Structures are given as C-alpha cells and as structure tokens.
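User: Can you fold this complex?
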Amino acid sequence: SAVISQKPSRDICQRGTSLTIQCQVDSQVTMMFWYRQQPGQSLTLIATANQGSEATYESGFVIDKFPISRPNLTFSTLTVSNMSPEDSSIYLCSTRDRREGELFFGEGSRLTVL
Amino acid sequence: AQSVAQPEDQVNVAEGNPLTVKCTYSVSGNPYLFWYVQYPNRGLQFLLKYITGDNLVKGSYGFEAEFNKSQTSFHLKKPSALVSDSALYFCAVRDIESSNDYKLSFGAGTTVTVRA
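Assistant: Here's the predicted assembly.
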C-alpha cells in the first residue's frame, strides 16, 4: 500500500488568503485524488489529478478556486484560493491501488479560516 | 449513478458485544465495496473490500463484512467490540461498469461508540 504524506497537517488562515497543500506519495502512481471533508460530513471528491494533464474537477468545484498541480508521478498540490470560513475543512489527498481500487489516504490537512 | 446509504448516524454498544454498522448501496452495474475507519484527527484507514468471490470478507482489526446482492447491502461486523473501535466508519462503492469507474462514492459515515 502507498504511504501518503501531506503538509501542512493543520493551519489557521485569514479570510481572503490562499494556502497550498502538498501531497507526497512514496511510489509512482497514475491517479491522485483530492477530497474535502467538511465538519461532521462525508468525503466529497474535488478533483482527479493525472500527471501530465489538467486536473478533472467535479461538479461544484472550479480550477480558479482549487488549482491543482501534478508535476510528477509522486507529488501533487492543491491550493485553496481566496479562502472564506466556508472553506474550513479537512482536505485529503489519496491514491488508488492499481489492481483493485481501494484508496489510500494521507492524514489530511485541517484548515480553519477565520 | 452510484450511491451509498448508511442509515445510522450513531451506533452505541458495550465492550464485548457484537458490533454492526449498516450500509446499502446503489449502482447500475457491479459494485466494488469498501469500508474505511477514521479515528479523531486522522485520515481514513482502509478496513476491507469486496471485489468478487466469497460474500463474507475479512479485514483488519477483526472486522468482517457480508456482501448481500439481493439486499444490496454490505454491513460491517465485529463479533466482540473494543473501546478502541470507537471511531467514524465510512462505507464506499465503485461501479466497475461505469465510464467513471475510478470514482469512489462515500456514505455519510456512522459514529461508533463502544462503552467500557
């Protein structure tokens, strides 16, 4: 199983600022996923990031708000832009086991926007 | 479209008693089914999965789940719960016959509390 490291693990941010979350995987993976978990809620897929192509965003999420980079097969970043208190969430990076599809998750980045 | 329902927001059991966390799913094709656990301030940990084969699958920490195609269910079970099993549990599904088969849909989650 892949080991996924995320940073920062948590941060407190001011309204209107942007924060970039980094995700590092210990092996080369084709697909990386970014999820959002709002307080007390389930996981919602933000986007899928494949190396060498633009990220694919889910309904309700746009690139201007959540730009994603995927420069190589082990690394991705998610930026939360122009933050508001509604962006206070846990943001989770994940990747998939190639053969059978279970996801492996990082520890998450807990953002609080004041 | 694929979806998962976890009908119980919370499950409370005494330590040593059986634990069941319910999950039903909806897919147009055949499902891959998963259970994850989330401890406080942690990411999600994979518990077990059903892909094909035996309907009863065994996973980590003594958990098991039974796939029931006729009832479209995949309930998580543990014969004897521990206080350390207290956590948030998520059921998830992939429709392997969908054009977007890489996507996982998660249930709302069930908070399990095991009292000593």
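The mean pLDDT of chain B is 92. Residues 3-115 of chain B form a domain with the Immunoglobulin-like fold (CATH 2.60.40.10).
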